[in-house]
Every structure is written in C-alpha cells, then in structure tokens.
Amino acid sequence: MYDVIIVGGGVSGTTLAFELSKYEGSVLLLEKENDVADGTTKANSAIIHAGYDAKEGTLMAKYNVWGNKVTPQLCKDLDVRVKNIGSLVVAFSEEEKPMLQTLYDRGVKNGVPNQRIIGKEELHEMEPNIADNAVAALYAPTACIVDPWDIAIACAETAVKNGAEVKLNEEVKAIQKVDDYFVVKTDTDTFEAKTVVNAAGVECDKVYGMVKKPDYEIVPNKGEYYLLDKSQGTLVNHVIFQCPTAAGKGVLVSPTVHGNLIVGPNSNPTVDGDYSTTLQGLADVKAASMKSVPSINFRENIRTFAGLRARRKDHGDFIIGEDPQVAGFYQIAAMQSPGLSSAYAIAIDTTRMMQDKGLFTVAKEKPVTTRKVYRFKEMSDDERVAFIKEHPAYGRVICRCETITEGEIIDALHRPIVPVSIDGIKRRCNAGMGRCQGGFCGPRVQEIIARELGIPQEEVVKDKKGSKVLFGHTKEGGLQ
Q1: Is residue 258 within 8 Å of residue 82, measured between CB atoms?
Q2: Torsions phi, psi of 259, nearest 5?
Q3: Contact (Cβ atoms closer than 8 angstroms) between residue 240 and residue 127
Q4: Which of 314, 349, 352, 256 lies closest to 65 in space, CA to CA?
Q5: Residue 421 has what DSSP assignment?
Q6: Got the DSSP string for 130-197?
Q7: Nearest to 308 by CA among 209, 208, 218
Q8: How much is the average pLDDT of 238-265?
Q9: Residue 252: in which H helix or E strand, if any?
Q10: How far apart (Å, rounded) are the C-alpha atoms in residues 93 and 410?
Q11: What's the pLDDT tens digit per position in 165-195?
Q12: Cα-based angle 78, 154, 6 (whole degrees, multiple of 5)
C-alpha cells in the first residue's frame, strides 16, 4: 500500500511528487498519457506571474505570490530554463489608467514586491516597439518566463531518483474508499493508498466524481497561440499584457526562454481534448496582439497551437486541500492561470497538510534536490571540444535549427522518465523546436528513439498514444 497516489502528471502532480519524495514515505504518480507534462502543462503562456491580478484573499493570490518567490529557485536547482524579465500591463488610453491603479493596489494587498506605475516616456524607453498610443503601464519586475514542461519533467525525474514511482499509460477509472484507505483502479491495474491527490487538470471534476458527487464543474477553456521564430524574439523585453477584461488577462506578447516570441491566447469554452486552432481564433489573437506591438511580423510564425485551461464554472478560485467529507482525499483542482505560477507553492503547502495528518514527517537524510542537463548549444567552444572527447555522440548535430546533438537525445532517453515519442524528445532537449519544426531532424530523432529503446520505428509516435508517423515500409503494403 502506498502512502499517497497522485492522479495526474502535469506540473501540479509532479511538483507535489518531488516535494513529497524528500520525505520518508511511498509515492505513486499515475498519468494516463505516455509522458508527463502532456496536457495543459505543455501548452500555456510559460509565465511565472507576479501576483497582482488575483483578487486579494483568494487562494490564487496566496499561492501566486508564494509561487513567484519559490519557483525560480526550484528551476535553478533542477536546471530548468527561467528568466526574470518582468511584466508590463499597458494602458492605451487615459480611460484605461485607473485599471493600472486597481491592479497596483491589489498587488500591494497580495504582497507583490517592487511594482510601480510608469509613465509614457519610461514605458517607451523600456519597450521601443510598443504601440505609439501606449500611455502608461504597471511594471512588475518579479515576473518570469520559464520552460513549463521541463519543470514537470525535472520534478518527476528527481522524484523517481528519490524513490517515488511514476506509472504512465495508466488512466484512472475508479476510486473507492474502503475503511481508512483507497482502492484506485486503472485501465490495466489496481493500487491501494492511504491518501489520494486529485491533480487531473481538466478532468479533476471527473476524478472527484469517483469518490462523491462533485460540487464543482470544470469547463475546459481553450487558448490559441502563435509561436514566432527567433528573428522576432527580441521585439519586446518584457511580458506585455493589456489591461484585463472580464474574459481574463487577454492577449500577451512575450519572449520565451528559448529565444522565440509567443503571442496569445484568446479564451473560449470548449470540450476536453479540443486542441484545434481556428482561422478566426488566430485572426483575433493577431489583431489583439498588434494593438500592443504593431511591428510583429507574423510571416515569421513557425507554429500555432492551443492549450486548455481547467476553468471552474461559476467560480474563479483554485480548489486546494483535503476534502471535508472524504478524509484522505486531497485536491489540486481548477488550476487555471496562475496555475503554473502557483504549482510549486501548492505542492509545498499540500505536503505540509499531509504532515499535519502524520504522513511524510521524516525528512530523508540526503534526498536528491538538484539536476544537471548538458546543453551543447550553451557550451563554449573549449567546453564543446572537451565534452566531445568524453562523449563522442555530442559531436553529431541532429537538429540544425537548435543545435541539438545525438548525445543530448541519447541522454534524454536514459533519464528516469523515458520518452517514447518525438515530441517527448522535443520537450526534453528542444530537438524539433526550431524554424523547420522537426521537418529535417524528425526522422532522425525517430530512428534514434527506436534504436536506443530497442523497438521498431513504427512504434515511435509523434506525441500521444496513437499518433503514428510510420505505418510500414514502402512497396510492402503500408496501410493494409
């Protein structure tokens, strides 16, 4: 019997697994997909927000500001890309200026440090490409950009090094409370645990419904994005927001930690599994973003994508903690924005809640709390020469756009959470993330995966289960 079963391998579930793994106790994380970070975590704005947006007194406000303080250090410890570039909420008319003051006052109440309202002259000095009619902005210097899927991957890998178990391709089908423990049934197996944590993202209400009638409903909310080439990556220096509306924070323009420019999202209710992009949705994103930065060259777009937010119907706050009616059943639910910003703080607090109930009270003597990833692109010439002597596979560049070597791909395939897809490698070492989006390196990456894992190339999928790339050899029947 496990001390805890965590349902869901996104950033909420994996950060909790990492935090719990520092203590004596058994941890099992169950994920229905073939990889961690394969849902909302892999498709979002990639921002650690400062914390002025959430209403004071909410869980969002509490955990966002806390998460902004602790997440950058987590990233540094686990060698996850993070950059503290700050954010600007821009007013484009005198009529919008009062909103900046409202956000500033809220930030003060929430405990956001060092924020201030800046005037037109300073704004245009900080952002030369901002629209001419931008008149003022709320500047929050603590906002960061980050690699969101790598936070989840790094936490899951490190948790496994500390003794936690991560089982992929295990979709939870039923949860039954039996006396003082739970029986969790998946589509392939049955597990028992003293406690269960529901961190199932857009399916949290369904998982909750397995133990009792849920008192909330999750309505998946889709946001569509453009990802532009590195030629556009220096167009802005900060995360650029517009004044928020009832629909949310609105369309942003921001650099990414990989050197690209991200633009989006819009906000539309949808259904679970709808990751489609639409002509109208992308046109709306484009028009809105050019209000902030008119000089964006969308001809440099290299990818469009959509992500899903786990938005709680008729209520705007997170659901965190032990259920008042089902002892031992915890929730990290309704994790819409600022979910990424808040996840690690929530993991710390949920661990504390379990410790109050007598679990995970003894710290391990020497838990693994750091990780090192070797990135050929970031090495000096001398470092490259020395590294290739010791690791010859690092001398063979596979992804030319991003300068990713065969050695990096091989290393990713022998880390604790083994990727089985082309996109799994993409998320770990950036192969296929460049201008050609894997058009050149994709077949070679697929070949390396098959070779290292000892499986036929036909079994190597693009991303999720069933996303086949190859169906057979040509002239041998193929799609029979």
Answers
A1: no
A2: 100, 5
A3: yes
A4: 349
A5: B
A6: S-TT--EEEEETT-EEE-HHHHHHHHHHHHHHTT-EEE-S--EEEEEEETTEEEEEESS-EEEEEEEE
A7: 218
A8: 90
A9: strand 252-255
A10: 53
A11: 999 999 999 999 999 999 999 999 999 999 9
A12: 130
Q: At which residue do the structure tokens 């029947």 appear?
A: 477
Q: Under the phi-then-psi rule, with left for phi > 0, alpha for psi from -120 to 50, and beta for the rest, what region is 16?
A: alpha
Please state, as a whole number, how many other Cβ atoms lie within 10 Å of the Cβ of residue 96: 16
Cα gap 458→473, rounded to integer Å: 9
pLDDT at 251 over 70: yes
Q: Give residue 221's pLDDT band: very low, low, confident or very high (50, 70, 90).
A: very high
Per the CB < 8 A criterion, the answer to whether 156 and 28 are in contact is no
Tokens 């199932």 sit at which residue?
200
Distance, C-alpha 189 to centroid of its chain: 28
Point out the catalytic residue in the list 49, 238, 258, 315. 49
Q: What's the rounded mean pLDDT across residues 14-27?
A: 98
Question: C-alpha angle with apex 64: 337 to 257, nearest 5 degrees?
Answer: 70
State in Å, rounded, how far the first CA of the chain is from the last one: 46
112 to 29, 148, 216, 250, 345: CA distances (angstroms): 33, 22, 30, 21, 15
Is 49 a residue of the active site?
Answer: yes
